[in-house]
Design a protein that fits this description.
Blueprint (H helix, E strand, L loop, with lengths): L1 E2 L12 H10 L5 H21 L5 E3 L7 H8 L16 H9 L12 E3 L6 E3 L2 E2 L11 H11 L4 E6 L1 H6 L2 E2 L10 H15 L5 E5 L9 H17 L4 E5 L9 H5 L5 E5 L7 H7 L5 E7 L9 H15 L4 E5 L18 H4 L5 H15 L5 H16 L6 H8 L12 H12 L16 H11 L5 H22 L16 H4 L3 E4 L6 E4 L2 E3 L3 E7 L6 H8 L8 E4 L1 H6 L9 H21 L4 E5 L11 H19 L7 E6 L8 H7 L3 E4 L9 H7 L4 E4 L12 H12 L20 H21 L1
Parallel strand pairs: 1-12, 2-6, 5-7, 6-8, 8-9, 9-10, 10-11, 11-12, 17-18, 18-19, 19-20, 20-21
Antiparallel strand pairs: 3-4, 13-16, 14-15
Helix pairs in contact: 1-2, 7-8, 11-13, 17-18, 22-23, 23-24, 26-27
Amino acid sequence: MLTHTLGYPRMGSNRELKKKLEAYWRGEAGADDLALTAKKLRLRHWNDQAEAGVDLIPVGDFSYYDHMLDNAVRFGVIPERYNVTDQKASLDDYFKMARGQSGENGVPAMEMTKWFDTNYHYIVPELREDQTFCVADESLLEQINEAVTVGHKVKAVLPGPLTFLLLGKCADQEFDRLTLLEKLIPAYVEFLGKISDRCAWIQFDEPILALDLDEEVRKLFGPVYRTFKESVTDVKIMVASYFGGLGSNLEVAAKLPVDALHVDLVRGGQDLEPLLEKISDNLSLSLGVVDGRNIWRADLDKAIARVKSAQATLGSDRILVAPSCSLLHVPFDLDLETKLDDEIKSWMAFARQKCGEIKCIADGAGGKDVEAVLAQNRKALESRKNSSRTNNLTVAKRLASLKPEDYQRKSPYLKRAEIQRAELGFPILPTTTIGSFPQTAEVRATRSSFKNGRIGQAEYEKFMHNYIADCIARQEAIGLDVLVHGEPERNDMVEYFGENFDGYCFTSNGWVQSYGSRCVKPPVVYGDVSRPAPITVDWINYARSLSSKEVKGMLTGPVTILCWSFVRDDQPRSVTCRQIALAVRDEVADLEKSGVKVIQIDEPALREGLPLRRSEQQEYLKWAEECFRLSASCVEDATQIHTHMCYCEFDEIINSIAALDADVISIEASRSRMELLGSFKQFSYPNEVGPGVYDIHSPAIPDADEMAALLEKALEVIPAERLWVNPDCGLKTRKWDEVEPSLRNMVQAAAKVRQKI
């Protein structure tokens, strides 16, 4: 019974890849230095998995930025604007595609969006109707040779062609992207020929099997994978589905002409019995029985029982044991957590520990003696189930006492807007930012010193006040209309609030990749959530004391806090989200009481939390909408509620965005050149909108004319009296020498368009 993983965290135990990437981008490290760091990390990660008992080692899951971008480069899918000859991208071309380039020869980055319903972002392939494909990059072959040389049994990993095309976008005019399949398959076959004699297995990731697919799409799987299987004879092929059950795709998956099918039994556990009934006689089954997306220990007894039930039908030689999906989505190693509470730590497993769980499950199902490990596992699960730390009766009673009026503003938007215009007096096309300003090395060092006790409260507050004062002065000099305090006290928009909520705990090294070199350290919800005291009020009011302009109160919304945390799995997510909403509601009420007139409650993860199956989406959207309104509805009509969303497909949830009933929503729109506003136009979105005119994920500095042109496109959809001007997202990851000129240009763009209208 073979064990394998679908992928492993890339950044390293100490985020070595992140640091080296950023040094390379700053010109402080060369390409050879970056390549050496990457090679060392790959070797270390392969060895970690092998030592934990993983039989098939994934190769191809590593990336300098994103695996979908890697696949685009592999097959020569390079947008024309990058001027790449022969479809072969250099390392710097690759990073231009991911990050864009500023300066005289500046070029915008490719679009980025969420990877299914995770907090990982992928670079969206740009496809033309006349697109050609070739084997343009063989770096995966080099990595396979590295792994083979040190003695590993290799499973090559790459995106499947159907997922690659369907998750791409049309570069120019709309067309059926699947018409490109006929040209793409020969390039895949050529590449298979280059790697097949070096691998034991090749894994094609087809997570679109967890989506609702049309019959026309389902019919393509058999011919595509039959072609692949017939093109190689000395390697086994696996198709991997994950992030949900197979649903109506089950029969197609069960008859795939390959050697193995991987299924997610954490989110699609209902698939096992029908799969065992319908699976082809020559198809092995990879069982994803360890959660690859959360940090809780697996129930090993339950997992072994599931494997044994499949074993009874298929036999051991047709079973593989694996996590549900790539371990990219969990932190690296629980052993690095030396400060975590011992009891709560005993309930957890990170990537390295999950490899051990996979080995134990395979051994237990195979008849080996694993009783000592099982006894320890049962003790930890029982401890978590019965701990008094997970339940708070006060929170439960408050939830039970909620009434319908707790979920609604006092008046409809049109009445509120009239009151707010009179009260706030903003100009037409008001300018603002999303919230954060550059998190300089000094800011991060000061936070760290305070957290570790090297400086006291007074010194910490003095530094933060000075930084806030500097942020306010810069914004006033730039000419922004609605200011922010810059958020220097916040390490992360979710972790910061979790640190101030009961029911949360925190890791020291629990980093996971969000995109590129950007890593986040999600807080952990282990119990019922509440807010014991005000969190942001003093910081916001200090900023307000420095300016006559309005300064926004900045909060993270309940759905985003839920989605970007590791959430307890012993109660419905909707219950946890309502608990968080009440905690945020208390903060909103205190901000308003202190005199704050504009409060932003960010919900960038609203779309991210949407279930992949349409049949499950309405239930989620209903409670997600209610949780946002619960957090925001306690204010008076004159208080303006903002929200922010980015990098998602708005057209799929436009009804729910409207149902949030925020007075103003700011959205990511610059990379798509305002394409996203199409859904707002079709829906006739009723409230105010700030489509981003400045791509903050790129170092490029947009000029005023460029942003003015985007604003004029936005005016074709949004009336001037309901249009705001802002960047795509927060500015914490950028440098001041990028931020200030960009914002000055943004204010000039708004002034130009104001003159025209």
